[in-house]
Amino acid sequence: MTQRAWTFRFWMGAIVVLSAAGLVERAEAVPSFARQTGMACEACHTVYPELTHFGRTFKANGYVLDNLRQVRGVNARRGELLDLSQTPPISIMAQVSWTQMQTSVPDVQNPDVSGFAQNGTVAFPQQISLFYAGKIAPRLGAFIQLTYGNDSGSIGIDNVDLRFADMHILPQDKSLVYGVSLNNNPTVQDLWNTTPAFGFPYAASNATVGSIAASQIDGTLGQDVAGLTAYLYWNESVYAEFGVYRSAKQGDANAVTGAAGPLDGTSSNVISGVAPYWRVAYEYTHDRHSIEVGVYGLSVSMLPGLTDDVPTPLSGAKNEFRDVAEDVQYQFLGDEHIFTFEATRIHENMDLNASFVAGSVANSSNDLTTIRATGTYYFRRMIGGTIGYFSTTGSTDAGLYASPGAGDPGVVTSASNSPDTKGWVAEINYVPWLNTKLSLQYTAYSKFNGGGTNYDGVGRDASDNNSWYALLWFAY
Questions:
Q1: Is 317 helix (H, G, I), strand (E, B) or coil?
Q2: How many domains does the chain contain in total?
Q3: What value does the mean pLDDT take over residues 335-353?
Q4: CATH number for the domain harbouring residue 387
Q5: How far apart are CA 322 and CA 91, in angstroms?
Q6: How far apart, in Å, do the first and last CA atoms of the chain sit?
Q7: What's the DSSP call for residue 216?
Q8: How confident is the model at residue 197 (pLDDT cuts 50, 70, 90)?
Q9: CA torsion sign, 254 to 277 to 47 to 468?
Q10: Cβ(32)–Cβ(63) under 8 Å?
């Protein structure tokens, strides 16, 4: 099926969902936001971190709505010089988890690869984050996250969204919000939980095996870039955004200056020039229902740089990635019952000219398609769960998705040189308080890295990567 044909079917399906919902007339989850606004978490979230319509509007307006005593300063013309909350918008989040894989991975410290690594991984903590989340000045707000992760054993920059926003009331009481966002992860600034940065699963184990392929917009560039985007949000329904991203790597040092820049051939995958990003969405609300349909995308021209630990000058042939995605969301917010359906499809075309010339891929062009769909239900915002389907399919390429070599334990390789991975996620949640969540999540694979059985050529099946994940998640 062609891209154009699939997009047509996607939009027709969205219209069918809209009609079925009976909508025929117009009508980020941290406690510092609650302290700032004086409203409970449920105003902005179904159950954190999923946003409600009000939460999306709060985010579009720059996180600046407040209900706190302020320290204010004005000039002689009564212009605002300072509007500072007396309570700083600081929050802390922590995650403690346990992960059990169906079959543990080989212990590669055993020379004959006959032993297995310990199964049943305890992460205490898995993650601790410190947030500045709220107003900085009039019309200027931020969501800034610093995270300690047990996988790195260090503290580093996480998601950042710094934005300026203002609003005008138009004729017939229509509103127009306009603003700019400075952020470090494409889609982290988006208003809906259908896009990758804040999409389901909202928390996942870092002690399992990951598939070998992801598109550039699907988290690959997170915390590795800086983007400046401008957006319009008309009447809390039509949203349009455009901007550009440029490489902004953390921890890289220039060989000559010894400083953080300029980037040189010792850095890998450096954006050439800037990468355009765009987003268009429409949300329709009526009574307790809302539905959104949209498209978003990213075009990246990238210089490979450091390849297989060999520095390569940042010049010459480039790898080109063009990501186009569609998304849809339906949300019902009742007094006792809450339901959300979310889906997205991301298609990436790759022209890998630089890698092909270097001999690191078999094809000069490839493609990758990812589909996710989830349904979430909560009763009284206390007990609920999610069922999700995921699928990644793409071109076979013996260089990009390599088979295991001699003595290789496999696991993260593909005997068929394919990225195809499919499966389901089921999650149940208990939320005794609005800032505390207990989760049990099960992930099941029907296909992993190109196969269902012996996918890695060393005897491992897709189902061997099935896993249980238990999580205690709270924020204060």
A1: coil
A2: 1
A3: 97
A4: 2.40.160.10
A5: 37
A6: 48
A7: I
A8: very high
A9: negative
A10: no
Give the pLDDT score at 16.
Answer: 40
Residue with tokens 């206390």: 382
pLDDT band at 363, cuts 50/70/90? very high
pLDDT score for 1: 55
Residues 6+ apart with CB under 8 A from 392: 211, 213, 214, 368, 369, 370, 371, 419, 420, 421, 422
pLDDT digit string (tens) for 221-271?
999 999 999 999 999 999 999 999 999 998 888 888 888 889 988 899 999
- Asked if 431 contacts 381 with a C-beta cutoff of 8 angstroms, the reply is yes
The contacts of residue 461 (CB under 8 Å, 6+ apart) are 448, 452, 453, 454, 455
CA 49 from chain centre, in angstroms, equals 12
Burial of 307 from C-beta contacts in 10 A (0-12 / 13-18 / 19+): middle
Q: How many residues appear in the chain?
A: 476
Paired residues of 165 in beta bridges: 179
Confidence (pLDDT) at 236: 95
With bands split at pLDDT 50, 70 and 90, how would you rate the model's confidence at 6? low
* Nearest-angstrom CA–CA distance, 63 and 179: 12
Domain containing residue 368: 3-475
Sorted by sequence, the CB contacts under 8 Å of residue 464 that are 6+ apart come out as: 101, 102, 103
Task: Using pLDDT thresholds of 50, 70 and 90, give the confidence band for residue 113.
Answer: low
Shortest CA distance to 465 belongs to which of 102, 16, 221? 102
CB burial string 359-386: b at 16+ within 10 A, e below: eebbbeebebbbbbbbbbebeebeebbb
| Cross-strand bridge partners of residue 137 | 140
pLDDT in the model for residue 161: 97
- Listed in sequence order, the residues at least 6 apart from 369 whose beta carbon sits closer than 8 Å to its beta carbon are 345, 346, 347, 348, 391, 392, 393, 394
How far is residue 203's CA from residue 297's CA, in Å, rounded to a whole number? 24
How much is the pTM? 0.90
